[in-house]
Write a structure and sequence with these properties.
Number of helices: 2
Distance between the termini: 37 Å
Protein name: Cysteine dioxygenase
Keywords: Dioxygenase, Iron, Metal-binding, Oxidoreductase
Family: Belongs to the cysteine dioxygenase family.
Number of strands: 11
Shape: globular
CATH superfamily of one domain: Jelly Rolls
CATH architecture of one domain: Sandwich
InterPro entries: CDO_1 (IPR010300), RmlC-like_jellyroll (IPR014710), RmlC_Cupin_sf (IPR011051)
Bound molecules: fe (ii) ion
Order of helices and strands: HHEEEEEEEEEEE
Strand content: 35-45%
Pfam family, one: CDO_I
CATH topology of one domain: Jelly Rolls
């Protein structure tokens, strides 16, 4: 995976106007470009504010954009919302928190998992090698996510109490939740 400055320099800011996605390059974006995209969308609340809604029983999400190179989502979180451990298969991604706080966790085999609080105004990006878990740390968290190439499959992980890990391939259309959670939870 390369993250060259020259590629990052070609990322375009989200422009003003009604068609913010028409300026995107017609190719897959790298993780830094995706971060520029979600950071720009944070400054355009008129594009996503109307989609904000919360549910303890199912994570609320809305598609903001999708083409052959990138997809962009709005996600809303309470402290009951938990993706479980997952990767994004072939996709790089970026997340910008625009309200409240999320916790991003990364699994550590044989040790304590890493947990990072990501508050409103902060963003992060990752490549296809990244495994994480996102949970709401407040009951009003809102985040903008972008993926390239667009999400199609994801890997979902179950880690047993004795540390055994298994990966299950799921469709992006399946709402991520912990593998061992009851389906009604
Ligand atoms: Fe993710």
């Amino acid at each position: 995976m390369t993250d060259t400055a020259s590629q990052a320099d070609t990322a375009r800011e989200v422009p003003d106007g009604e068609q913010p996605f028409t300026a995107l390059p017609e190719r897959n974006l790298d993780k830094r470009e995706l971060r520029t995209l979600v950071d720009g969308l944070a400054a355009r609340p008129e594009l996503w504010r109307g989609q904000v809604a919360f549910s303890d029983t199912e994570r609320h999400y809305a598609s903001l954009y999708r083409d052959e190179f990138v997809d962009v989502w709005l996600l809303c979180w309470t402290r009951q919302n938990d993706t479980g451990w997952h990767d994004h298969d072939l996709s790089s991604g970026a997340v910008r928190v625009v309200q409240g706080v999320l916790t991003e966790s990364n699994p550590r085999i044989g040790g304590e998992h890493l947990a990072t609080a990501v508050g409103a105004g902060s963003s992060f990006c990752f490549g296809p090698d990244h495994i994480h878990r996102l949970t709401g740390a407040t009951d009003d968290a809102v985040s903008v996510h972008a993926y390239s190439p667009p999400l199609w499959r994801l890997g979902q992980y179950d880690i047993t109490e004795d540390g055994l890990m298994r990966r299950i391939s799921v469709s992006y259309a399946d709402e991520l939740r912990p593998v061992d959670a009851p389906t009604a939870a």
